[in-house]
Design a protein that fits this description.
The protein is about 75% helix and about 0% strand. The protein contains five helices and no strands. The chain is an all-alpha fold. The protein has one domain.
Length: about 100
């Protein structure tokens, strides 16, 4: 019973955090391509400098960069994930998409 309650609290906190992080996005934010190139170290000096200057001031883009780096890591270092966890994450993702529509 304690584990399920803890998971429920965790899931609610994650939903709230995901909803709040979107409110921090501004027109100056980096697009996903720029974030991906930055994460891989493939931006040229002027673009890289602009990205770095923005990243030190923007929690939204820092989160996006962190997510991108995490995704790249797991792409390069695959690990097994339980089917139950995959199903739960897919469910949370679908719920989030429905809320954003």
């Amino acid at each position: 019973m304690g584990f399920r309650r803890d998971m429920s609290i965790f899931e609610e906190k994650m939903r709230t955090a995901l909803e709040e992080i979107e409110t921090l996005k501004t027109p100056e934010c980096l697009d996903s391509v720029s974030i991906g190139l930055f994460a891989e170290g493939r931006l040229f000096s002027e673009e890289k400098q602009r990205a770095e200057e923005h990243l030190v001031t923007c929690l939204y883009c820092i989160k996006q960069l962190n997510d991108m780096k995490e995704m790249l890591y797991y792409e390069r270092h695959p690990t097994g994930i339980s089917q139950k966890l995959v199903e739960r994450l897919e469910g949370l993702y679908r719920e989030q998409r429905v809320r954003n529509e």
